[in-house]
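user: Please supply your own:

assistant:
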Amino acid sequence: MKESCNNTHTITKTEHISFKETVPVLKISVFLGVVLLLLFLSLFLGPTGIMLPDTATPVGNAIMSLRFNRMIMGLLVGAALSVSGVVFQAVLRNPLAEPYVLGVSGGAGLGATFAILFGAVAAIPLSLPFAAFISAVATLFLVYGIASKGSGGTPSVYSLILSGVIISAICSSLIMFLVSMASVEGLHNVIWWMLGNLQPPPLSQRLVAAVFIIVGIAGSMLLASRLNALTLGREMAHYQGINADVVILVALLCATLIAATAVSIAGMIGFVGLIVPHVMRALFGPDHKMLIPLSALGGGTFLAVCDAFARSVLAPIEIPVGVVTALAGGPFFLLILQRKMRGAWIG
């Protein structure tokens, strides 16, 4: 028994040290350079082709301002979705976990739809992120509770996915029911919002959303070392003196807050929280002290580039950015699911 305990401590120490490996400065510098280049190029892409508008004219200045604001929206929303994906994957020890797959985005969308169609947003503009957050939290605990039934309180990867898909489908059905009862104006607003877009909302909503997202990401970064321990399992976290239940609760609330806020201002944009964390983990390793900020930056850049592609590829028709991320994320999801079925990641 003593030997087993000593081995456990040895494994814990070894695994913990592996997280301490430094990421080469050159690799980070190249990554930052690529990010800046992609963000700069996203300002060039528009319905008129690859060119910057003439800012000397009022029309050109307005177009440039809109592109810049949409880039900022992409950075904000992409960072939120990516970081929430990182946190969900760490806490649930599930490589397929992300807000869209777990039903959190669907729950946030249902709350936001209620707020839009029943006049809460018109009366109190800041009610949108609050409604989305409350609905998303309720959905997350519902999914986790359903998946935990009959599994001893620890849901499997597949029960979480199945529960999330089912609850997400129910939320989508309820949204469709609400939309079918809405006026023509309400129908247009909700449908365009459901498809996902980065059209900037009123400044007050953007500022409140930015505060929520920054606070949620900062809270996630403060939990980085504890998330490292959680990815090794509850037992390993316990040996390191970490209260796993408290960390999981706080981490889930942070991830849900930023995901719900992103949904409230940009609609249903899926798979960003799945694609980006996996790419960043492959490039820079599993240490959440680096993974969280780099995923935030990578996710924001990815979504900004997707938006630039969406508004230019079929010009003058604009594709909702949620459609672009879904087309990119669907095959990626199937690839990760196939690897998981072969036991390629954590159990």
About this structure: Confidence is low (pLDDT under 50) at residues 1-18, 343-347. The CA atoms of residues 77 and 331 lie 22 Å apart. The chain has 15 helices and two strands. The domain at 71-341 is CATH 1.10.3470.10 (ABC transporter involved in vitamin B12 uptake, BtuC).
